[in-house]
Write a structure and sequence with these properties.
The longest helix has 14 residues. 12% of the residues lie in helices and 67% in strands. With 224 residues, it is mainly beta. The radius of gyration is 22 Å and the shape is elongated. The N and C termini lie far apart (51 Å). Strand 6 and strand 7 form a beta hairpin. The strands form 2 sheets. Strands 1-4-5-6-7-10-11-14 form an 8-stranded antiparallel β-barrel. The relative contact order is 0.19.
Length: 224
């Protein structure tokens, strides 16, 4: 984690080479898609149905560049999803998974519409996810049920964003592999990645534009 922070600080210090640099804080809401699928093991059918997962995120972001830009972020994310597990020969079992992670998306974006106090952007890039104390609970113990939590996963994030003066609004879709590997009788169950949507609101604390500063300096000299 210290290496990640060092890289972001180094990037911020060298960002003036690209002409424009923004640093800010952000927070938002995220939700994951549910699913309903049957798995067959020998003569038994296993049905797992999930509700929508809900959670929040909070952290920092940087934006480097002008029309084309890079945007690395670092934030804490927590999401809880409830599952209903049903076997043909036993009662329903409730399962709750709480993901507690540190996320590092590194996106490349383009400003479709760019004005002084408003812009519209699109973005795409990889998303690195690190476990920060995730856990799962079942209402009852299940025989031959195994879970292994991974330390990190990688996925993809894409979205659209808007800037209004010092505020920034992002709407994104994430596709990230699961941190938990779950299996029953050595058969993997949750093999599909997590599909999630999130909306976040950010506040620009620092915004530096070398080109605007040069323009102001030239205008001042002309007036003199």
């Amino acid at each position: 984690m210290k290496k990640i922070v060092f890289v972001m600080v180094f990037t911020a210090l060298s960002a003036t080479v690209f002409g424009q640099f923004t640093f800010g804080v952000k927070a938002g809401y995220n939700t994951s898609l549910g699913f309903n699928k049957d798995w067959k093991f020998d003569a038994s059918n296993l049905n797992i149905k999930s509700d929508l997962g809900h959670g929040f995120q909070a952290g920092i972001f940087m934006r480097i560049g002008n029309r084309w830009y890079a945007q690395p972020e670092l934030y804490y994310n927590m999401t809880r999803t409830d599952y209903e597990i049903k076997l043909s020969d036993i009662e329903n079992i409730d399962r709750a998974v709480t993901l507690s992670t540190v996320d590092l998306p590194i996106m490349v974006g383009y400003k479709i519409f760019d004005k002084d106090n408003f812009n519209m952007r699109v973005m795409l890039g990889p998303k690195f996810r690190f476990d920060a104390g995730s856990f799962a609970k079942n209402s009852e113990e299940m025989e031959d049920w195994k879970e292994v939590a991974k330390k990190a996963q990688i996925g993809l994030t894409a979205g659209i964003g808007f800037d209004f003066w010092f505020m920034t609004l992002d709407l994104r879709y994430d596709l990230v592999d699961r941190l938990y590997t779950t299996s029953l009788k050595d058969n993997k169950i949750n093999v599909n990645p997590i599909n999630a949507f999130n909306i976040s609101l950010g506040w620009k604390i620092i915004e530096y534009d070398k080109n605007k500063n040069k323009k102001k300096y030239k205008n001042k000299n002309n007036n003199d």
